[in-house]
Amino acid sequence: MGYTLDFSVVWHAMPALLWGCVGTLGLALAGMTLAMVIGVAGVAARDSKAAWLRAIVIGFVEVVRNTPFLVQIFFLFFALPLIGLKLNPTATAIIALGVNGGAYAIEIIRGGVQSIHKGQVEAGYALGLHKGQVFRFIVLKPALRAIYPSLTGQFIMLTLTSSICSAVSAYELTSVAQRIESDTFRSFEVYFSVTFLYLAISWLLMLGFAAISHRFFSYPTR
Amino acid sequence: MTPHFGLPEFGFLLRGLQWTVLLTLVAFAGGCTAGLAVALLRTCGHKGVEWATRIYIGIFQGTPLLLQLFVVYYGLALTGLKLDAFVAVAIGFTVNASAFLGEIWRGAIEAVPRGQTEAAMALGLHYSSRMRDIVLPQAIRISLPATIGYLVQLIKGTSLAAIVGFIELARAGQIVSNQTFQPLLVFGVVGAMYFILCWPLSWWGSRMEARLALASQR
């Protein structure tokens, strides 16, 4: 008893915490970029003619989706040096986020590609559009529109997941918070405030994504 | 002398697995109870209450599970209650589950055709019987795939208890890995254990989802 809450330590540490937010956003952005690359490549491989390639992709997706991110990042942390990649913790975290997000991206992108009806493409050719136009207006844009909500939702989830990268002491918000906590012993105040910084980050992302969607995808479909 | 990864180490991991399962079961049971309350409040028709539960759900969906655990863990410590680490993390996961399950079931309750509620009202059923006998049985069916999906999330999420120091499967893995210096083998085995736990559930969930989609196509 007799504990009085003292949020002034959080206030003093605000510049460091805000830089932590930048670190978190950078980590998530880099991770999501890698995830998109893995996602597109994975979708191509998932529908390839080689059965072994399809099996690898399916296995990859199932393994990643059914194991915890914490175990994945620990595994990669020790596995990457063995294949000659001696990376700092932040780079390791980016790869882990990319691998994790990539598995989910494969499923999402695949759903988007499948949502384009074959007849639409044929209709495009019948109207005299050339190959590039068909891809851009009939396949890519509607597919992007179809997967946009789940993809951006996944991006926000990945941003929240990136907090786990503090376990390998990558530079991001939670590891900054842990350092401040061990300096000040104000565990509750620090983590309570940082939780709301994360909330602000995910709200800002949500608003930003909604604005982008409004700008590019608000056209009638019927 | 460093021990190699052998039977005793495997046994230690299995005991960690036991705690993971127990933690998941406790949090899921608690989360189901509290989540039902959240879902009912979220759909009760009172504007203020609906907004309050909406914000409650929004906070848990918009913040990392790890930070939620930290806040609950250190917040409970501040109250002066001397709680066991298991109880503290179980409370953390329960609160998280209540928000996520509450949102899943809110969606399911709203997906039950409105005519069902209207017919029940016309028959003179009051709220509790309308919910218990008409709406919820149908909503549970609709929500089952998403609920199982969340259960898988929860199993994976309990690994974060390792970071606050509770010895479940992931933490047991860290300990054995530090003792044996065989991190790849140890985390490979740990990952396989999680996979064996989660994959059948995922498979069951997506199969049920496909079936429900087929049923609603008619």
UniProtKB/TrEMBL annotation, chain A:
Domain ABC transmembrane type-1: from-to ranges: 21-209
PROSITE patterns in the record: ABC_TM1 (PS50928)
MF terms (GO), sorted A to Z: transmembrane transporter activity
Membrane topology, from the record: Multi-pass membrane protein
GO biological processes: amino acid transport
Signal sequence interval, chain numbering: none
TM region(s), chain numbering: 16-45, 66-85, 146-170, 190-212
Superkingdom of source: Bacteria
Intracellular or extracellular location(s): Cell inner membrane; Cell membrane
Gene3D superfamilies to which the protein is assigned, alphabetical: MetI-like (1.10.3720.10)
Keyword field: Amino-acid transport, Cell membrane, Membrane, Transmembrane, Transmembrane helix, Transport
GO terms under cellular component: ATP-binding cassette (ABC) transporter complex
Function, as annotated: Part of the ABC transporter complex GltIJKL involved in glutamate and aspartate uptake. Probably responsible for the translocation of the substrate across the membrane.
Similarity comment text for this entry: Belongs to the binding-protein-dependent transport system permease family. HisMQ subfamily.
Quaternary data: The complex is composed of two ATP-binding proteins (GltL), two transmembrane proteins (GltJ and GltK) and a solute-binding protein (GltI).
Protein name, per record: Glutamate/aspartate import permease protein GltK
Lineage: Bacteria, Pseudomonadati, Pseudomonadota, Alphaproteobacteria, Hyphomicrobiales
UniProtKB/TrEMBL annotation, chain B:
Cell compartments where the protein resides: Cell inner membrane; Cell membrane
GO BP annotations, alphabetical order: amino acid transport
Ranges where the ABC transmembrane type-1 domain occurs: 17-202
Keyword match Zinc: no
TM ranges: 20-41, 53-73, 85-105, 139-164, 184-204
Keyword Transmembrane helix: yes
Entry-linked SUPFAM superfamilies: MetI-like
One term under GO cellular component: ATP-binding cassette (ABC) transporter complex
Pfam families assigned: BPD_transp_1 (PF00528)
UniProtKB keywords: Cell membrane, Membrane, Transmembrane, Transmembrane helix, Transport
Protein family per UniProt: Belongs to the binding-protein-dependent transport system permease family. HisMQ subfamily.
UniProt-listed PANTHER family: BLR6398 PROTEIN, MEMBRANE COMPONENT OF AMINO ACID ABC TRANSPORTER
UniProt name for this protein: Amino acid ABC transporter permease
